[in-house]
Specification:
Length: 604
Amino acid sequence: MCGIVGYIGRRDVAPLLLEGLQRLEYRGYDSAGIAITGRSGELRTVKAKGRVRDLEARVPKRFAGTTGIAHTRWATHGAPSDANAHPHLDADSAVAVVHNGIIDNASELRARLSAEGTAFTSETDTEVLAHLIARSQADTLEQRVSEALRSVEGTYGLAVLHRDFPDRIVVARNGSPVVLGIGEKEMFVASDVAALVAHTRQVVTLADGEMATLKADDFRTYTTEGSRTTATPTTVEWEAESYDMGGHDTYMHKEIAEQAEAVDRVLRGRIDDKFATVHLGGLNLDPREARGVRRIKILGCGTSYHAGQIGAQLIEELARIPADAEPASEFRYRNPVVDPDTLYVAVSQSGETYDVLAAVQELKRKGARVLGVVNVVGSAIAREADGGTYVHAGPEVCVVSTKCFTNTVVAFALLALHLGRIRDLSVADGRRIIEGLRRLPGQIDEILKAEPEIKRLALHFADAKSMLFIGRVRGYPVAREASLKLKEVSYIHAEAYPASELKHGPLALVEPAMPTVAIVPDDDLLEKNRAALEEIKARSGRILAVAHQEQEKADHTIIVPKNEDELDPILMGIPLQLFAYHTALALGRDIDKPRNLAKSVTVE
Ligand code: F6R
């Protein structure tokens, strides 16, 4: 979704901002723009529909300044166009604003301002902010921004320049991330650390309701009401290089390839061999409380929801606590019964997905205990939750999630083991799971070695218009995630069904033109899964199986190494990530930025 970058210091600002915008390109956008404070204090802007390189081509040779803000826009109010791209200015070009989020009462504010004579130049909700700030008569820019924000309902991460206050950038956050980058006699602001980590790893993440003023050698944070807040910079865990492509042609390929390393990281320092358990420092759940949990409800969206579905099964199997997963986007709108003995777990790679955050806030308001399973440290969901665990996958740049999915499932396995060992999981079973977890990185590497064969299979199936994915119990969420991966990145229609449901409808779809991908683990359901393959074969369906041994009824089998039954789902989806990747490559898709999708969905 939209991205913000800002800089104040001594360096030439335009190249810095363009580089920052390029680092945010992965989030998905349709236009970009930049505003700087020129040498004599005037505000100058350049905007372009399209890519950051289109914007760069428009930046005049003489565009000098040392303070500026920039933006990549993902259209919500008004089509992608030069006029709708941010920054937005007031009529006198005194104020420039870049904004992520949505102003819910924008039409009401527009009508009011128009009636009072304000002429609008764009269709965006953001432009009202520029006019409101410009109209304020308050003494300081900080007061003018907070006065404008008092009229506004909705979500925002924003950065503001003002011609009359050329020594500062004022920023504010409510529901959309804002991170300050603290440098040596220079300050940065961005909606995502990716845009500033090449320059500084010292960051301050603003909380909702917080604002900040950045000057070249100083910053301060305060509430929208003006009371000072304390902000201690923390060090970003990742080097700038973690955000690079590292010799791969796409981020998706890089991120699939680094999964063994990522899983190693989520396990590191957490295993306790003596008690056959794991330590998860941030859970904030003592053993007595853990024993008192009667149900676990996992909430997430998209891929994270699928990881949560596998997580729920792991919790039921290892800890024997009833657990299920639900899309956070559905949960929050059905006035859910919030039960004090239920532990809620919010799962999100970005930690900023609006539907998940809103569900967490609703739960907290009703007094529920919420844990977060999150990748981005210090993100909104991580901060809002009562405790939780980080999945330590490292930065995931491709819009389509791969390594974060795998690490999230491993994090759930750790949580399930931890809860299990507090409850009734035996030492022997605890050891068995720990040994299984330790085998994962080596087994992932083994799977990745089969890439040439998986590529061959992808080319074989790339002409399909539609594909069916089936799995049973542990295999079903794997099938769902694999079908989501294929449709997102290749645009081939794919549908996932429990194998047990085939006879109840989807069998009608089976014919040679509708291939089936089947998840067939060697577990107690192997024969049942084989029966489903028979049913498909009998109707001339083509079958690609992912299994622990060759499947006679399948036309092709991708063999994955066997782990413990409970942990098999972690491995079985990985070849299908490569399958989706190579299918998309064969079809010439924009792999890292699939059409219509954005990396973090910070709006409803
Ligand atoms: C799919 C994908 C999305 C996200 C979903 C939630 O590849 O990446 O389905 O999983 O938008 O995002 P997070 O995990 O950031 O909450």
